[in-house]
Design brief:
Blueprint lengths: L4 H16 L20 H9 L3 H8 L3 H8 L3 H18 L4 H9 L2 H8 L6 H25 L14 H4 L4 H7 L4 H8 L3 H30 L4
Helix pairs in contact: 1-5, 1-7, 6-12, 8-10, 8-12
């Protein structure tokens, strides 16, 4: 479920482009269909130098096979992928640190759905993230109870509803799942510290969910 921006950008962006424009069939897509040969080594550097610096940096952090798959695409395909990546990057700049962390935890399918929401529909985007984060944190509560790591009802924050209004819906989704101890700590922080606290909490709880699900699968047996 949880994949960082850099690792999954190639696949999610390519997927989004294929969904919105028929560039070529899936069987012709490097990395998504039949394997392709890497371009000659001497041709790669000029290709890389021609890329926008920010995109080149992200591409350089990708696995070698994904870099080769991108460089093997036609110039038009590369341009379309770069344009979509830049569009998404601009969208990300409009969100808080905690919201960007939630976006980074979305599945590939959810990521594509999120970025298909019109850019001027910020309320819809925020609600999508709030719903996604609520599902993840509800799943964490259920998993912790089912694996007997914690007994009792689901975690409910003791922060007053009135105090939540100053936060965005995705941030509220995180706050509502804080434990009483986390809520107490949260209220003692400055505004800047609260933003970092929510970011760290969203990141940590998704890691906890992955750990709990893995533990549960080991106890109950992997699905057939």
């Amino acid at each position: 479920m949880r994949i960082g921006f850099g690792i999954k950008f190639f696949y999610t962006v390519a997927s989004a482009i294929l969904a919105s424009a028929t560039l070529l069939s899936c069987s012709d897509l490097p990395g998504l269909g039949a394997p392709v040969s890497a371009p000659p080594q001497q041709q790669q550097q000029p290709q890389l130098d021609a890329l926008p610096p920010a995109f080149r940096e992200v591409l350089g952090a990708e696995p070698e096979k994904d870099q080769q798959a991108f460089l093997a695409r036609s110039a038009n395909e590369q341009h379309a992928i770069i344009e979509e990546w830049e569009r998404r990057e601009k969208m990300l700049d409009r969100f808080t640190s905690a919201e960007r962390t939630i976006i980074s935890t979305l599945s590939q399918e959810d990521t594509d759905d999120f970025f298909q929401i019109p850019e001027d529909h910020k309320d819809q985007q925020e609600q999508y993230l709030a719903d996604a984060e609520t599902r993840y944190l509800d799943s964490l509560d259920d998993c912790l109870v089912n694996t007997h790591r914690r007994f009792g009802p689901r975690v409910e924050s003791n922060i007053a509803q009135e105090a939540l209004k100053r936060f965005t819906p995705p941030e509220q989704a995180i706050i509502k799942h804080l434990t009483p101890e986390e809520s107490k700590q949260f209220l003692t922080l400055s505004q800047d510290q609260r933003e970092q606290f929510l970011t760290d909490t969203a990141d940590r709880k998704v890691d906890q969910l992955l750990s709990c699900v893995t533990h549960s699968n080991r106890r109950l047996g992997e699905p057939l």
